[in-house]
Amino acid sequence: MEESKLSAELNKTLIYIRNLDNCPPSYLNHPSRKEFFEIVWLKNENALHTVKGDELLKGDWIYLIPPYRVHQLNKAGKKGVLLSFKRDILDDDVKEFLLDVFKIFNIQGEFSCLQINDETAEQLGKVYQILEEEYQRENNSLVIIKALLKVFLLQLVRIKEHNFTVQDINQKRVYEFMVLLEMNYQQVRNTDFYAGKLGISSKRLNQILKEKLDKTGMQLIHDRIVLEAKRQIIHSESTIKEIAYDLGFTDRPYFSRFFKQHTGLSPEQFQNEAKAHIVTKFNTLF
């Protein structure tokens, strides 16, 4: 029963916040978890990874885990908080902010880690407390939650700038691909273009993306198109036909087949479910 309730919550929500001591065990292995950016903030705990020289193990650690990572961090029995959010919640923000978020979550491959001092922990804690309080309200506001999440992420961007570490060359290519994709996905939908911009072959690009993200370039391109289609279906007043043309589909039936292939729903079914869901729970859009 608890697992089915968790499934419904993760499938519908844009943001998921829990103390680690009451985070359902089934969350760690739930398939929907892969769609979330995860922030794991350990408080006065040992690091979950091997620290060079084994120095300063105890303290406050923030782990930034991007979507679609296979790496599992064992958080069992640890004191701290989990803040997970889907990419969709950031979609109305300016591109520069989105790219900053991509950067801090992608720097070290499977996960990125920050050790923070007491002063920084206090500053972050103030923002997190207000965010959690709004999240727990029965009639919370998605607008306020998004604004507070942005402040929290901007604080992490600032911290990360002082803790920058050398990137693995392939992880740099993943980041560069994501930046290029964000700028060009509506116009260019073949991996040859992106591989050419990175100075490597399409085959090599797909190998790197498969290794780091467990997806090919074309799958990531399709994911981004579907995400934009969902955003427009939910937030714009355009018809399905207009959205299809805006996304470069000259044939509306083909757009419907493409959308259903990737979501399991027709655009109309998704639109109806989204409308019903907005009415019942404002802060948990698809």
TrEMBL record:
SUPFAM superfamilies assigned to the protein according to its UniProt record, in alphabetical order: Homeodomain-like (SSF46689)
Gene3D superfamilies on file: Homeodomain-like
Repeat found in the keyword field: no
Lyase listed as a keyword: no
Molecular functions (GO terms): DNA-binding transcription factor activity; sequence-specific DNA binding
Coiled coil residues, start to end: none
A Pfam family assignment: HTH_18
UniProt keyword annotations, A-Z: DNA-binding, Transcription, Transcription regulation
Domain HTH araC/xylS-type: 175-273
UniProt name for this protein: AraC-type DNA-binding protein
Gene source species: Dyadobacter koreensis
